[in-house]
Write a structure and sequence with these properties.
The structure is a single chain. The protein has a seven-stranded parallel β-sheet with strand order 3-2-1-4-5-6-7. The chain has one domain: Rossmann fold. The model has no long low-confidence stretch (mean pLDDT about 95). It has six helices and seven strands; from the N terminus they run βααβαβαβαβαββ. The protein is α/β, with parallel strands linked by helices and about 160 residues long. The longest helix is centred in the middle third of the chain and has 17 residues. It is globular and about 40 Å long.
């Protein structure tokens, strides 16, 4: 049984690792500021400082080649997606994004992946894992469309 409240306004779920991934999501502020939102990122001093006053759900890290944290984040994604009325999941990666994208898509929640600006010639592992579950793939450079022909070029975020 879902625990989310249909009377609550929908929330935009912004998911990303701390550091550069979070910085690229923060650059979208003019677009997302009108939405009620929830952030999923790592509980680092920088992330907590940047997201002061925001609804923040701390994710488990490290995620690179860490199966226990992948499973922890999958449980976290299940709880977050069931506990909130999520309108869409938007992510720039990295590993923390995978369980949120997969589970959101299985729940018929739109999923949007924005490929990071510094991977022009090869796709990121996270993008490759998330791609089958995406509603939309966005890239920041025209050259990235070689890897993602279906992607929409949105320009650089930083």
């Amino acid at each position: 049984m879902d625990t989310n409240n249909d009377d609550e306004p929908p929330v935009l779920l912004l998911v990303g690792s701390s550091g550069g991934h979070l910085a690229q999501l923060l650059a979208l502020r003019p677009w997302y500021e009108r939405w009620r939102r929830c952030w999923v990122t790592f509980d680092t001093p920088e992330a907590v400082s940047l997201l002061t006053g925001e609804d923040l759900v701390p994710a488990h890290h490290p995620t690179t080649r860490n199966v226990p944290n992948l499973l922890r984040n999958a449980r976290l994604a299940w709880r977050v997606l069931r506990g909130r009325r999520v309108a869409a999941v938007v992510t720039t990666g990295a590993g923390v994004a995978v369980p949120f994208v997969v589970l959101a898509r299985l729940r018929r929640i739109p999923t949007v992946y924005i490929e990071v600006y510094d991977r022009i010639d090869t796709p990121t592992l996270t993008a490759r894992l998330c791609r089958p579950f995406l509603s939309a793939m966005l890239v920041q450079w025209d050259e990235q469309r070689r890897q993602y022909p279906e992607a929409i070029v949105v320009g650089t975020l930083l």
